[in-house]
Design goal:
The chain has about 180 residues and is of the alpha+beta class. The chain is built from four helices and eleven strands; from the N terminus they run ββαβααβαβββββββ. The strands form two sheets. Strands 1, 2, 3, 4, 6, 7, 8, 9 and 10 form a nine-stranded antiparallel beta sheet that branches. Strands 5-11 form a two-stranded antiparallel ribbon. A hairpin with a 6-residue loop joins β6 and β7. The longest helix is centred in the middle third of the chain and has 11 residues. The protein starts with a strand and ends in an 8-residue tail after the last strand. Bound molecules: fe (ii) ion. Fe (ii) ion binds next to β9. This is Acireductone dioxygenase. It catalyses: 1,2-dihydroxy-5-(methylsulfanyl)pent-1-en-3-one + O2 = 4-methylsulfanyl-2-oxobutanoate + formate + 2 H(+); 1,2-dihydroxy-5-(methylsulfanyl)pent-1-en-3-one + O2 = 3-(methylsulfanyl)propanoate + CO + formate + 2 H(+). Pfam families: ARD (PF03079).
């Protein structure tokens, strides 16, 4: 289940209802899917063939279509990242910069872990959302954020798009952000 860390105070928020309420206040959608639906051999596999990616998408087809119908997503795919990903260091360097998009960024974690760093309201500042398998998050359009891997450096996620062009990253220079 997702956990929040507020960067200014180091305060942690856990428990599905608390996390959901905090994120709702920050206009971030949070839902949870049953990650155990995924066949066991895919729950810990981070280099995937096209067939395996399709298998993950069909496992969560109902959840994906429900989310897509409610929120207008038209296409979806699978992203898998780990130390086996070519150029992973360069990719992470690129990822780890605060940016915005013209559409929301939605990720459903199928396996592994990941973390979104999001700029909250002025009273909260930047906060981390640590995600694990089953967590679904949507960072609203124009909200500064970035995504990266956690210590395990392994993730498989479903990405959903309204228009794939909407995912272009616009750098957000912010003096108030410090790692
Ligand atoms: Fe992004």
């Amino acid at each position: 289940m997702a956990e929040i860390r507020i960067r200014n105070t180091n305060e942690r928020i856990s428990g599905e209802e608390n996390v959901k309420a905090f994120l709702e206040n920050q206009e971030v959608l949070y839902e949870h899917w049953n990650a155990n639906k995924l066949p066991t051999e895919l729950q810990n596999k981070f280099v995937l063939s096209d067939e395996e990616k399709s298998q993950i998408l069909s496992t969560f087809d109902e959840e994906i279509r429900d989310l897509a119908t409610r929120r207008g997503y038209r296409t979806w795919d699978i992203v898998a990242l780990s130390d086996a990903t070519p150029n992973i260091e360069e990719l992470l360097k690129k990822f780890e910069q605060v940016h915005t998009h013209t559409e929301d960024e939605v990720r459903a974690i199928a396996a592994g872990k990941g973390i979104f760093i999001i700029k909250g309201t002025d009273d909260v500042g930047y906060f981390d959302v640590e995600l694990e398998a089953g967590d679904v998050i949507s960072v609203p359009e124009h909200k500064p954020h970035f995504f990266t891997l956690m210590e395990n450096r392994q993730i498989v996620a479903v990405r959903l798009f309204i228009e794939t062009e909407g995912w272009i990253a616009h750098p957000f220079a912010d003096a108030s952000f410090n790692k």
